[in-house]
Amino acid sequence: MSSPLSGLRILVLEDEALIALDVEQLCRDHGAGEVAIAGNLREAREISAPFDAAIIDVMIGGEPTFDFARSLEAAGVPFVFASGYDKLDEIFVDFPDVTLVSKPYAGADLIEAVTESIRKRARSADS
């Protein structure tokens, strides 16, 4: 049985270094081929490699990531929000089909959410 993220390139946009490293290892443990960590929006925008999926925090250094999330949507990159900011209406209004995994979260829940976002994007691309 293959790992759910087998060979995929994952972007992690997270400003808490320990959380970012944990998520990186979690993705690698589930087969990710490459995991890039961005600790701020500038770094995220500078990463040139295309990604198969992304895990993004809602707030990075006090700045919302919604514009970056919209750019991912426009590029067709599936993503999930992983954040302690789970009560912001903008998440649910502007991104109704994007899963929010609330911190603190179990690793299995995060991987399942990422895997499902990839499946949903593939289904919508096929139709």
Automatic annotation (TrEMBL):
Where does the Response regulatory domain lie?
9-118
InterPro entries linked: CheY-like_superfamily (IPR011006), Sig_transdc_resp-reg_receiver (IPR001789)
Q: Which residues carry this modification: 4-aspartylphosphate?
A: D57
SUPFAM superfamilies linked? CheY-like
Indicate yes or no for the key word Kinase: yes
**Single GO MF descriptor:** DNA binding
The UniProt keywords, alphabetically, are:
DNA-binding, Kinase, Phosphoprotein, Transferase
Q: Which GO terms describe its biological process?
A: phosphorelay signal transduction system
Q: Specify the domain of life of the species encoding this protein.
A: Bacteria
**Keyword Transferase in record:** yes
The name of this protein is DNA-binding response OmpR family regulator
Organism of this sequence? Aminobacter aminovorans (Chelatobacter heintzii)
